Amino acid sequence: MIRRLLNLLAPVVLSTAAVAASAAAPVETYVQAPGPLGPLKGTMLSPALDLVAMMLIIPGSGPTDRDGNNPLGVRATTYKLLAEGLAERGIGTVRIDKRGMFASGAAVADANAVTIDDYVADVAAWIAVIRRETGVPWRLAARP
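The structure corresponding to this sequence follows.
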């Protein structure tokens, strides 16, 4: 009985493995944008085939890194998982460390002195990097 079941399932398992092996993995690249005192750093994840769009993932408030983790105990990698899921659907992403945080720590002397206007300037710098690196134009989505 077990042998018969294995004989029936073997072709399915092998064909599933072949499909999984043939799917091209997304390409991860480290990217930088200009900051006031040093570079802002991030990670670009591009689908291997058929880039549809690019998305900039900006960490939320507090000491949250580009992957969605923070030193206060959050280790969920939410932003990284989001980027991987989007890449499977043809959408590339750039995940960033905010000005003054983590790998972008050298961009400013005091991370606590960063303003909303500073973050707006950083987003503009990241958009320029995305456009330069990918050629994907930036557009605001139309509201219904």
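The chain has one domain: 24-134.
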